[in-house]
Amino acid sequence: MKYHFFQKNRLSLITLASLALLAGCDNSDDYSENHPSHQQSSYLEKYRPQLQFTAAKNWQNDPNGMVYFDGEYHLFYQYNPNGNSWGDLSWGHAVSRDLVHWEELPVALPVEKDADGNVTQMYFSGSAVVDFNNSSGFGKADRPAMVAMYTSYYPTDMTLDNGKTIAAGTQAQSIAYSLDKGRTWTQYEDNPVIPLPPAGYESQFKEFRDPKIFWYAPENKWIMVAVIATQHKAVFYSSTDLRDWNFMSEFGPANAVGGVWECPDLFELPVDGDSNNKKWVMVININPGGPAGGSGNQYFIGHFDGERFTPDDDSVFNGEAPVGSLIADFEESESESGWTATKDLQGAYLSKGDRAGQSGVSQYLGEQLVNTFVNGDASVGSVTSPAFKITDRYINLLVGGGNHPRNPDAVEDSVPPSGDLLFAGADFEGEDGATYDDIGWTSSGDFVGQVVASGTIATQQQVSGFMGRKLVNSYFGELVGKGGDAVTGTLTSANFTINKPYINFLVGGGNHPYGAEGAAAVVLLVDDKVVRSATGSDSESLNWTHWDVQEYQGKPARIMIVDENTGGYGHILADQFMAGDEPAQPVSTETTVNLLVDGKVVYSVTGDNSETLGWRSWNVAALKGEMAQIRIVDNSTAGFGHVLVDHIIQSDRPRQIANWGDFGSDFYAAVTWNGAPDGKRYWLGWMSNWNYAGSIPTTPWRGGQTLVRELSLQTIDNKIRLVQTPVDALKSLRNNALFTLSEEKVVAPGDTLLADSQVQGQVYEIEAELQPGSASEAGFKVRTGSHGEETLVGYDAAAGEVFIDRTKSGTNAFNSGFAARHSAPLPLSDNASVALRIIVDTSSVTVFSGKGEVVLTDQIFPEPTSQGIEIYSKGGDINVKSLTIWPLKSIWADK
To answer: Where does the Glycosyl hydrolase family 32 N-terminal domain lie (predicted)?
Structure first.
């Protein structure tokens, strides 16, 4: 794939005593990025997963090349050997014998560069097989070849050594082989083996990627499926030797198409364990457009005849509007609609598709829709419906446009907070031509001698939201003969005394948190230690933020502005540092559709940074009979600072658009292992989301893989569903149970069952069966802490949904949409209960519910001290039929 720009407290649930630090020293001169001494890690860093694979250091995304051979499960993955952010994509490599414990190996396919250090080839996603019959001719009599097929990304025009010419930006399919179980690799001399997409799609050569290959025994041939990403097409090829490929067919578009299609897979499974009744499963990963926003994973069930995949009728959902009561279809004029518009949207919020300067608006119904791209993204305002009565369980609506969620703490209009400047120069005002040093700051790096910025610089997008005439703007590279974001350095203020409980200031620019490689941030230094930090939101519009500094009142401090980033949005904007008695309120920058009851927002949804509209659903069963309104809000002037809305319909069921493999936010690029023993089918995904992958607060690594899951097909409620369970070997990590319920127990709201038992920890497993009874909601609070941190995992009885709520889970300021509740529909079982298997790690929660047909995976970033576990209910008593909690050992315990 490619990058998208964008029991007791004394018993720790991580058995730290069994974790040997992986410290190593090497005095040899043989320095290599892949040398074992440079792959060491304590594996005890803050937020480091203890149950799931992460590389010791650096950036990691999609799983690749997953194949079983000679007792080893191979996991290759997209990897940057040179840093903690996306770039220099190579194939990292790890192996396991049980799909739980992993050993990281040297990089398998490293990025290629010329003598000047410029990238000539990156290795994007792909797959691997073992060629036991030596159809490729690469193998030896006693050593079958492991053959990888991957997408070669060529960033510039070039002629390869074999004479093939390549256009800049090409994504082509290439192969390499290994005769030593994947440890070393040889590229095929005639790469790429598929240089262009099939006939009719040649112009899509920059969007042709992610080949999955497998052996099709009925016809003794290899099958490859790849994607033409922006066209929502899966394309199928065949080969007898893995070198020469013939195009056979295509599939799509179908179901979720709100973003690019990536990382396909195709495999066969028995239905309900019947080997005489098998179905094929087609997997398509999508970004954006997932069920929780951003990245997601969908599947189709159907038939494959060796040439073409045909989905079953009940596996495909058409794009028609759901049956129900229409609230609005926006087909009449604005004056006839009864909706009320404000600001730039008055008399202008409806359009027939694209507006000037806009392209790709699609998947709306009828002729018109709400499109707030009135004067480009500079337009702001709201559109509010007449009042209506909620009469059904769901409101379904089509939504597209920008991903700018609602911030309940934000205000509509910018009102500067009261207070005083922290120090002279804290507002950056001064004489024209004055440098940052002239107004009292101490500069380093490229900031030395740089004149204080007065707004937008050179080709930068319009900068707004600062006060007065001046600000910090580190996008000044073009002024010194470099790219705008190419400059780095720091500005440090004079000492000041913290004499108020809050420091308020304006910040903008890139989202590159301090503490990670490539920071672009503002930090607070007390006793020369960074105690607070803030960064931008990938916007040229500055907004108010604040630090609570009550614990530091009376201490001397300094502000430091840091720009270490030379990539996209690799700059920082800052202004107006003030001491205040109250925290500053940020200004709303949302692009949202909101449901209002009694004038208050009860549900809100935003787009996915896509001009393709997709169905969203609100479960409003608990609000039946209430009067409500819909309000569409566009307060953003940043990129994708607009919202698209069409048909809004009340219905008795949610509008299903796809069969989702995971309903959480952090399961993407999922593909399966080839060649697993006994016909088993296992998969995992990248545990992240392109909405915030580059900003999560981890170091020295960023990104990792989910728990491995075994797949099966089961008939549930008369429909074949993909069912997932953790691999059996995960149970080997269990220590003696911390808590076991010996008999059923009724739990009332406020019950302290688990707290009384002093059950605590960071890494553990919960198995429970709950009967909600009269309660509207029931479940568990995990990773609870003294400062209000908690993550809720439970069942919403009114909505009929399983959910993870991470709105208070811990650190979340790195992305405005991270703090959210993610849910999935699941009816209660025949005995009115819900089964939950919850795996809690240091920085994630994975929930398997029902029979495994519903799974949610979410990252969380709580403090290590947040170790509480509680059972809770709302609105009534619940019956706990069974409950066991086990501590889990770290997979790194033997390192």
So the answer is: 53-312, 656-726
